[in-house]
Every structure is written in structure tokens, then in C-alpha cells.
Amino acid sequence: MILKGKVWKFGDSISTDLICPGRYFHLRSNLPELAKHVLEDADPDFAKKMKKGDFVVGGKNFGLGSSREHAPTIIKIAGVSAVLAKSFARIFYRNAINVGLPLLECDTSQIDEGDELEIDLLQGIIEDKTKQIKLTTSSLPKAMLNILNDGGLVAHIEKHGDFKLD
Amino acid sequence: MTISEKILARASGKKKVSPGEIVDANVDLCMSHDNAALVCKKFKEIGVKKVWNRDKIVLLFDHRIPAESVKTAIGHKEVREFVEQQKIKHFYDMRAGICHQILPEKGYVKPGELIVGTDSHTTTYGAFGAFSTGIGATEMAGVWATGKLWLKVPPTIKIKVKGNFKVWVSAKDLILYIIGKLSASGANYKAIEFYGNTISNLSIASRMVLSNLSMEAGAKAAIVPPDEKTMDYVNQRMQKQFVTLQPVYADKDAVYENELSFNVSNLEPQLACPHQVDNVHPVSKFKGLKIHQAFLGSCTNGRLEDLEIAAKIIKGKKIPMSVRLLIIPASWDIWLQAMKLGLLEIFVKAGGLVLNPGCGPCLGAHQGLLAPGERCIATTNRNFQGRMGSPEAEVYLASPATVAASAVNGKIVDPRRYTDENTDIHGYEC
To answer: Could you read off the pLDDT of B227-274 as tens digits, one per residue?
Structure first.
């Protein structure tokens, strides 16, 4: 699958509170409404500015904090096609794969806001069209790739009745 | 093998596992709070009719109780209906307290178990020698359906702590200091094991502080090897229907990724400053900073020993009108004990608001949110921007002693200004 879009750049340590603040708890049963506030405390206009298919690019330890699955869910619902970061926090990483949001770990210091990216998810190749550079990403564990390929964990268990590790 | 490796090997039916290996593990116990509403929804989407084992699921509400909005009330109602329909036995509704206090307190947590919860601070049960970790709602729906979860065996960091705490310095100061050194991602994807005479001397409640807050360094599990104190606590409370597991200890030749040593003898009270839990400094560096709210509670520090320490400092004093002091005992049992000991009276007479057991404003959903420009000192676990209300507010994390001393003075102060003698405590033993 090839993903194409523009970069929205964020810094290190983007917490789940910055992605999905507790003060919008009451919107959790209305995800499209909650998604209007995605990453609001990191960039107040992000949800308005971004276009479907764009990429969120962060630094170190993206998604640290709460186990709230709404964090990756509303990034996905907002239309972001993948999140790239130098590293991801553990629970956020699992949650993202489980809800079907692709994450790519790579050296994001070379990518800037507004860059146009083209990403081959299966090959793990990230091409920065603006900078004319190619970045590689480490591959997902097989267990996660199976879940992502099935479209998330719900579909995966529906299909296999269990986790498929191999 | 390390403790984590042994527990994961047992749970996945293997003789030996190594870091990096992915295992399909059988879960011994799982917990969800208010977010069980989302787990129920995902469980229904999977299409399985019955949960794999209704006895191994503990549910309760603590995050938004009583319901602060109609939407929350609907979520609670949906969970109650699910509990009824699936005949889930271990459901406490709003009548218990914070999940991470309740599971140990009601005898669900035992050494050697694999426990998962839809809450990041599920690492708390590591204080009892369990491998316990936080997962998301969809993943929990998978556990409810299959009883299993895939897990990557983490490498383990060994942390040795020696020395005796100075007066008013506690486990909270130690773990904040450790997080400051490790960084917020220093234990990401890793397990921690705690050793040393300081750890042995800690109360169960204080060990829970270490395991709870280790999550803020990214830890997947944070385990204190069980000892006599652990077994006494567990045996007094154990739910009879659960199989007793043997405590698990690391092998002599266990391989650790890293070994760190700390000495607490000269440790000062610590403060995690905005907006990162690893932005840790001695309290003395920030003394004098005006505060608007002080919050004593949460799954990190809402236990009886925390309330006792705070009461020692607060007794007989008045909280200035410029400060709101919120006190939230972590459970109904703790609330009742604090009442019997006269602690709640001390807080109320000083001008504190004693609220119902639950998470309170820690996660910023209700009960004491902050206005722009306000500053709160809290015994909680996170100080991320926007965590407790306005993104233009500030949250400082500290020990119960530092929070109490700051509340009394209307500004951040080092609790060591109070000596044991001049706190003038009579009437109960701490």
C-alpha cells in the first residue's frame, strides 16, 4: 500500500493528553466530534489545517502516557494515514496497530513541516519527495503485521478466533 | 530467568523465554474501569457471545464518579447491563474506590500472576510480585474473547536501592528521582525489578508507589520480589476462588539489561515540574512558587499512610483562602479508616475538601479542574500540559508531605521545615 500526503511536524514527548485531553472525555462516545480536538494542545489548529491522507511526524517517545485508545483512534478518524516518529511509547504503539493506524519508526529529524511524503508500508520505505531523500523503517513484529493487515484487532480475532503470531 | 521472564514463560506454557520473544500468554486476571464501556462495544464487534471466564474479570468505576455528564452516565449504564448479561461476578460499580487500590485490597492480586488492565498504571500490582501491565480497550476485548494476549518478553532493568529516608522523604521522592535519571522513555518496553534494603523496609503502600509510577519511565512492568510483608498482605485478603500461585523469584544467573544503584540517605524531597514527569528537581529549588490548588490522592498516593503524613503537617492549621485543598482517599476502606483515625476531621477543619474515593481531577475530566494561569501541586502521576484542565495551567508532582506543607503555606515549600516535634500530633499513632 502506498500512502501519500503532507507532513505536520510535532516535537518530542507528544503525550496522550496533548493528543486527546481529559477535558473532552464527554465526547468519547462521539468520535468524529472528539477528532476535531485531536492534538489541539500541541497545535490548536491542526484538525482544521490538515487534509485527509496527511502524516503526523513526531520526535522521541510519541504517545507517552495513558492507555486511552482514543488517542490513536482520533488521529486515524481525523484522516491521518500514518504517524512517523523516532520512537513510540509502548501502549500507544499497540493501541495504534489494534485500531489500524500505521506507525513508522524512523529518523524524523530530516523531515520538516510541509514536506510531501510517499510511503510504501509493506516495504517500509519512506520517500521525502520535497527533500529527495529515502528513509527506512524497522519492520513490525509479525504478530502486529498480521493485525494491521486484517484491519485491526477486532477483525483479526473475528477472522482467526485468536492472535496469529506466525 | 528474571521474574518477568518466569511469569511469561509459565503463562505461555513454555519452559524458557528470552527478551524479544513474542509469546501468546494466558491472562490470569483482567481489570477495566469506566472505559469498560468501550471494551464492551469492541467485544460485541468481535461477535463472541460469552466472555472467556467471568470470574477473571474485575470491573468497577473510578474515573468519573459520580457521572459528571449524561454521556458518562450512559457509559456506566451500558457496563452495568453487560455485567448483568455476562454474569460478571466481580463488579463494584462506584462502591469501592480506585482500581489500583481495590484489586490488591480485595484480594485479587497475587505474586506470579499475569494481570492486564485497561489503564496505564496497572503496573501497580508489580508491588506484589505480579507481572501486570496496561493495555487498550480493543486489546482487552480480545482478552475477554480469548483469555489470551500476545506479549513481547521485555528485557529487565535491575534497580538496587539502599539507605534510609530522611524525615519527610518517601517512596514518591525516590521514584520521581529515578524517573528523572531514567527519563520518561528510559524503561520503555522494559521491565524493572527492585531490590535492596530500602525496598525491603518499605510498606506495601510505598512499594505500590514505586510500581505505579515506574510507568512514567515507560516500564511495561515494575516488580518488587515478594517477601513476608507481601505474603501477609495477600493471604489476609485472598479471594478463595482463585488458585494460589507460588511467588516467583529471579534465578541467580538471570540476565539483566542494566543494573542501577541508588542511595536514599541524602535524598531531598523531589518535584516533577511542568510538563513532563521526568522534569525532576529538588523541591528546594522551587520553594516559594505560589499555588492555587493542592491535591492529595490518586492511585499513586491516596493511601492511608499518605493521608496520615499529610494530617501530621496539616493538623491545627488553616489552609489559606488562596488555595483549594482536595483530599481523595483511594478507597472506601481507606476513607473509613481515615475517618476513624480523625484524619478527615483534621482536613475539613483546616479547610480541605474531602471528596468521594475515585480518580478525581488527576486525569482532568472533572472534580477540580484548573483555570488558565493556575498552578497545582499534586500527589498524582502526570503533569502533562492540559492534564488537569486548562492547557495553560501547571501541575507539579510531589510527595504527600510536600503537597500538605505547600497547601498550608499557599506556596511550594520543602516539608523538612516541619520537624517531627513541632507537628504536634496527638490522638493517633502513625
So the answer is: 999 999 999 998 765 666 689 999 999 999 999 999 999 999 999 999
Chain A residues near any Cβ of chain B (below 8 Å): 13, 15-18, 21-23, 25-30, 41, 60-61, 64-69, 87, 89-91, 94-95, 98-99, 141-143, 152-154, 157-158, 161-163, 165
Residue B424 confidence class, pLDDT cut points 50, 70, 90: very low
Decide: helix, strand or coil at residue A2: strand
For B179-223, how does the pLDDT look when each residue is reduced to its tens digit (9 = 90+)? 999 999 999 999 999 999 999 999 999 999 999 999 999 999 999
Radius of gyration of chain B (CA): 21
Instruction: Report the C-alpha gap between B150 and B155 in whole angstroms.
Output: 16
Bridge-based pairing of strands B114-117 and B131-134 is parallel
Say which CATH number the domain at B236 has. 3.30.499.10
- Does A86 reside within a domain? yes
Considering its fold, how many domains does chain A have in total?
Answer: 1
Contact at CB, A163 and B64, closer than 8 angstroms: no
Residue of chain B whose Cα is closest to the Cα of A69: B136
> pLDDT digits over B389-416, tens only?
999 999 999 999 999 999 999 999 999 9
Q: Which domain holds residue A70?
A: 2-137
Q: Which residues contact A83 (CB under 8 A, 6 or more apart)?
A: A55, A56, A57, A58, A62, A72, A75, A96, A101, A102, A103, A104
Q: Which triple of cell numbers denotes residue A72?
A: 490513536
Chain A residues within 8 A of B385 when measuring between CB atoms: 15, 17-18, 41
Contact list in A for residue B69 (CB cut-off 8 A) is 25-26
Please tell me which of the candidates A26, A67, A161 has its beta carbon nearest to residue B135: A67
Residue A26 placed within a domain: yes
Predicted local distance difference test score (pLDDT) of residue B428 = 31
| Best CA proximity match to B96, nearest among B401, B395, B343, B302 | B302
Residue B247 inside a domain? The answer is no
Provide the number of structural domains found in chain B: 2
Q: Determine whether the interchain pair B139/A90 forms a contact, defined as Cβ–Cβ distance below 8 Å.
A: no
Q: Which amino acid is at A162?
A: D
| CA A65, A67, A72, A77 torsion-angle sign | negative
Q: Nearest CA of chain A to the CA of B46: how many Å?
A: 5
Q: What are phi and psi of B229, to 5 degrees?
A: -60, -45
CATH of the domain at A13: 3.20.19.10
* Contact (CB<8Å) B71/A154: no
